[in-house]
Amino acid sequence: MAMKSDSKLLSAPYTVWMTIFIILPMLLVGYFAFTDKSGSFTLENLLSVGQYSNVFLRSIWLGAVATAVSLALGYPLAYMIAKMSTGRQNVMVMLVMLPMWMNFLLRTYAWMTLLEDNGLINSTLAAIGLPRVHMINTAGAVVLGMVYNYIPYMILPLYSVLTKIDRSVIEAAQDLGASRRKVFLKVVVPLSMPGIISGVTMVFVPAVSTFIISKMLGGGGNLLIGDLIDMQFLGSAYNPNLGSAVSLVLMVIILICMGIMNQFDDGEEAGGGMLL
After folding, report:
1. Nearest to 185 by CA among 58, 99, 39, 75
2. How far apart are CA 51 and CA 55, in angstroms?
3. pLDDT at 2
4. pTM of the predicted model, to two decimals?
5. Backbone conformation region of residue 95, classed left if phi is above 0, alpha if psi is from -120 to 50, else beta
6. Lowest mean pLDDT among 40-44, 174-178, 240-244, 262-266
7. First vs last Cα of the chain: how many Å apart?
8. Which residue, among 210, 188, 190, 196, has the nearest Cα to 254 in the 3D structure?
9. 3-class secondary structure, 41
10. Average pLDDT over residues 148-154
């Protein structure tokens, strides 16, 4: 009984924190989503979300592209770091985390300076006789900002899983005649699937809901879900009821995506269990 009392006492701060900052905000979002300005129940807010389907599709598409690029760049880097000595691993992990120590807005402002029509990149191109390229206020700039800001969340889970792979399993596959390509595809990738799932989730969720990156690097021409929510709560089109409805739909979409990713993870674990 004493142990149960101690455990409840220790979990009390987390329970209070979760209630104040998670449960209550979600209840408020649900309340505003299903009520009008007078507080009466209505489904009009949710029905109105349909007119922004293009914004949802654009957000999901750009978020998926940024996630795919982060995976394509992050996996080889995490794999190389995992094969280094312990000392070099620590240094490389610190370098990966180093940009995260800088303010998010400052990092995005830096990319604005680089990508502007008269920015550093275009000035360099002009100096060597090459034509200037319009990069700022484009979908590509938004994806670039997403990748730069969120790729550490892809690399770190992958690195954590890759370092735990038993070298004897890889050596056994090599002893049985598997080529490096087959060892990588048939052994390393399946064993690193939990890291891939975690990395994809940790990049896709913030990427699909971001608004600062799209506002600063997209110039308002690439409206995303986060921008739409921001407009409803803080912009001139103040409508917290519609903003809550959009937020609620976004949460449902994210939960569906996470559920799909977890199914892939469960499939890999089942396959591994059958193999053993």
Report:
1. 75
2. 9
3. 53
4. 0.88
5. alpha
6. 262-266
7. 41
8. 210
9. strand
10. 96
